[in-house]
């Protein structure tokens, strides 16, 4: 197995909590099966990971790498027509993992490699998420408007 961390090097500056959880979200995104965009999400409460998720097709469904991307074939722009996709979003998969294992996400923070879409924003609001920390933007004005109206804090992580 490939060694991920070289522990022979001297200790460097510890990452902040935001850096730590966003790096985990980036690692989680590497499991994505989406051909267009890799997204990872981590649900956290009290500095403890509750669940993770990445974007991709549901269990027992063939991956887009096998059957192709419907959105690519139809030239659907990013941020539009989310229903034209075989996959689930990273945030949705994180919520489903938490639910599957009986873990409440109320008052949790969501760390994501990208700004949530409007569909995920509505789920985030109803799930009781208190804050979202993102690494990248996404072209979805309605998502931003709904999160602002629901008074859910969205922060772009410092680089």
Structure overview:
The protein is α/β, with parallel strands linked by helices. It is built from six helices and five strands; from the N terminus they run αββαααβαβαβ. It has helices spanning 17-29, 64-67, 70-73, 90-100, 118-127, 141-149, and strands at residues 40-45, 48-54, 109-112, 131-134, 153-156. Strands 2-1-3-4-5 form a five-stranded mixed β-sheet, with helices on both faces. Helix 5 links the parallel strand 3 and strand 4 (131-134). Helix 5 (118-127) runs parallel beside helix 6 (141-149). The protein is globular and about 50 Å long. The model has no long low-confidence stretch (mean pLDDT 93).
Q: What order do the helices and strands come in, and which of them pair?
A:
Elements: H1 17-29, E1 40-45, E2 48-54, H2 64-67, H3 70-73, H4 90-100, E3 109-112, H5 118-127, E4 131-134, H6 141-149, E5 153-156
Parallel strand pairs: 3-4, 4-5
Antiparallel strand pairs: 1-2, 1-3
Helix content: 25-40%
Q: Tell me about the largest β-sheet.
A: 5 strands, mixed
Judged by helices, strands and strand pairing, the structural class is: alpha/beta
Q: Number of helix segments?
A: 6
Globally, the shape reads globular
* First-last Cα distance: 31 Å
Low-confidence sequence ranges: none
What multimeric state do the chains show?
single chain
